[in-house]
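Page 42, continued from yesterday. The earlier attempt failed because a stray header line got pasted into the input along with the sequence. Redoing it now with the clean sequence only.
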Amino acid sequence: MNIAIIGDSPFAFLLARELDQDVARHAHVDIKLLTREDRLANLLDHRSGTAWKTINKRSALRHVALRAEAVKSVSLREKRLTTTKEILPYDILVVDQAPHFTSEELSRIEASIHKLILAVKSKPKSRAAINFQGEDASTWQLALLIKGWLGKQHIQDVALTIPPTQNKALNDFLKGNGLMLGRSKDPGITVAPCSPVVSPNKLKGAHIDRLDCVVSDAKALAKGYRDVLVRSGDASTNLWRAEQTRAKLFSSQIARLVENEALRPLELEGAALGLSGNNGALTIVGSSQNTGLRAKTIIGLDLAFWRNLLRRYH
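This time it went through. Structure tokens are written below.
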């Protein structure tokens, strides 16, 4: 039985790790993780500024094969996917729609910002802007991290802008940490949104909603398919412990599919967002919003979980 996981985010990695310890050990099961690269960063861990610390995903997997390949298209009806290197059939497919910056993307962004800073320093009193287009947890945390880094460099003439969100507390937190809501007309650079490994329009046969996400049910099954599980495109989750919980639920669902058992509705929590800036922290977990010590504690526990993985799979 061939199982394919497509994804870059912590969820895809943590799911592959869960399966590696259980389902992948069965002789008749072959599992592949298709991802754009074998490294994985956590922007909440900014102890070294923009020197991103990354997990080596490949070193964490013994029974799951990691393929660092871009996915060109997926035919859900024919049960096969096409990468830049090969065509792979599957019996069970997991599509991770969560957007996530790759370390290569982060390096390009960092290089662009360094060039912008040099240009600003060469022209005293000139102004510039870094306009972020993304509306997701990774973009928000990246903007906060860069704002803090610019502050440490005593650079005040570069505005950082971000699209306003639907959450007042989140907007207030972003503004309170020096970000502008909207877009600046000053010259500068634009940071494009991060994206999932495979865009919905490349999933042939999938039902797509108005938010450009694959439609799925309470069992995480893509509409019209019993062999395709979907991690929704909720872009407001970046806490690793929440993704670990989600990965365990999906792993159990996959085990039921392998054993041809009835699937159960998954009791998934809502968004699990954690943001950290120069002026404090914010967490939004389900309907609970926290700032101050409570938010720092939640993020601290999440970072402890991440750093344990980092020590093991650096």
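Notes: Residues 2-102+194-258 form a domain with the FAD/NAD(P)-binding domain fold (CATH 3.50.50.60).
Reminder to self: strip header lines before submitting.
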